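Technical annex, item 7. During the second reporting period the consortium partners agreed on a shared format for inverse folding records so that results from different sites could be compared directly. Each record opens with the tokenized structure and is followed by the designed sequence. A conforming record, contributed by the partner at site C, is shown below for reference.
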């Protein structure tokens, strides 16, 4: 199953990541992708890593999971909404994960952050298609970031915060995150995020990102044409010094450079096409193994991980600093609230998702 293609599709220009080519290709793709996804509803195949004789080539086995243990657990997605061109892709995964389609989501709450009239019209259309599951909080009042997080107001419920530019969610990722959250070992449980300020370095350190190179620019063509073709496989280990990913949340390679973001997305594509996505699975990564506020941007901000996609419960916010959330929600969630509680946040290796872009990468990727 390929992020911008379809299960069983061969690698080719027509089936590789249409949204990587720009927003104009995204509108309407979600409906086609959804039809493919829902053909597998009710029992969802999930992937598990089994170590083989070759440490860089584990066996990725598939099992069926009906999520029986989560049947009576209330679970909601909390989506930062505003960009329908991205949500047209994300929506296919959201609908696939609804309980009515064999998943575990009881509802999807769309927190309106930045949007146009067209974005709202699109969201209303989605809500009409899923009237019992899609929630538009019309009662939201204007304000700071805390307004969004206060929507997670149901006691006993679990939530998955999702950025609107998530373009791939592995089957079983959401229930796996909820299961880990319910074990009580981590305050927050992040997905294993491809294109992440911290985890991209982890992926490279465990040699999950192979040596891929950009295709040559065809004669008489532009850099834009170079973006259209697949990156070329050169070897199992990335040895190009231009693609050394720093282990920090504001790294040059990945956070600032679109081509580094393209590399990690291409690595996921390569793994999907070779049935080796479980090579990204590191088990559990503890974001706070070395303490809190260990990385700084040089101008006064420190975060320990990017909160693009993570699980939490309503009760986790019982003692949160709402003023801190209002001012900088990512810093509060990733760093200050875990520090206040003396608890850690961790990422679950099997819960693989793709985060399309940080703002500084977007122009180059599109």
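Designed sequence (site C submission):
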């Amino acid at each position: 199953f390929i992020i911008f293609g379809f299960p069983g599709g061969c690698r080719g220009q027509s089936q590789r990541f249409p949204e990587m080519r720009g927003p104009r290709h995204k509108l309407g793709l979600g409906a086609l992708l959804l039809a493919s996804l829902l053909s597998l509803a009710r029992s969802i195949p999930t992937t598990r890593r089994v170590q083989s004789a070759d440490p860089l080539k584990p066996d990725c086995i598939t099992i069926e999971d009906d999520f029986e243990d989560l049947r009576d657990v209330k679970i909601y997605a909390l989506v930062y909404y505003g960009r329908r061109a991205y949500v047209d892709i994300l929506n296919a995964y959201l609908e696939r994960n609804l309980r009515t389609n064999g998943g575990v989501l009881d509802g999807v709450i769309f927190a309106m952050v930045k949007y146009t009239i067209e974005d709202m019209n699109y969201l209303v259309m989605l809500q009409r298609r899923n009237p019992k599951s899609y929630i538009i909080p019309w009662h939201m009042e204007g304000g700071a970031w805390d307004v969004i997080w206060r929507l997670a107001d149901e006691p006993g419920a679990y939530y998955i915060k999702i950025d609107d530019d998530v373009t791939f969610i592995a089957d079983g990722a959401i229930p796996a995150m909820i299961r880990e959250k319910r074990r009580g070992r981590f305050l927050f449980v992040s997905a294993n995020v491809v294109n992440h300020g911290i985890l991209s370095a982890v992926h490279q350190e465990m040699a999950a990102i192979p040596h891929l190179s950009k295709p040559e620019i065809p004669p008489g063509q532009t850099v834009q044409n170079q973006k259209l073709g697949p990156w070329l496989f050169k070897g199992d280990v990335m040895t190009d010094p231009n693609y050394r990913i720093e282990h920090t949340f504001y790294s040059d390679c990945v956070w600032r450079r679109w081509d580094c973001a393209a590399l990690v997305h291409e690595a996921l594509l390569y793994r999907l096409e070779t049935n080796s996505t479980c090579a990204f699975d590191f088990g559990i990564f503890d974001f706070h193994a070395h303490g809190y506020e260990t990385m700084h941007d040089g101008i006064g901000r420190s975060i320990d991980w990017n909160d693009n996609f993570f699980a939490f419960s309503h009760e986790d916010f019982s003692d949160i600093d709402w003023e801190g959330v209002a001012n900088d929600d990512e810093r509060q969630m990733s760093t200050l609230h875990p520090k206040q509680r003396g608890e850690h946040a961790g990422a679950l290796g099997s819960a693989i998702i793709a985060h399309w872009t940080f703002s500084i990468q977007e122009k180059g990727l599109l």
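The first strand starts at residue 44 and ends at 50. DSSP finds twelve helices and 13 strands in the chain. All partners now use this format for quarterly exchanges.
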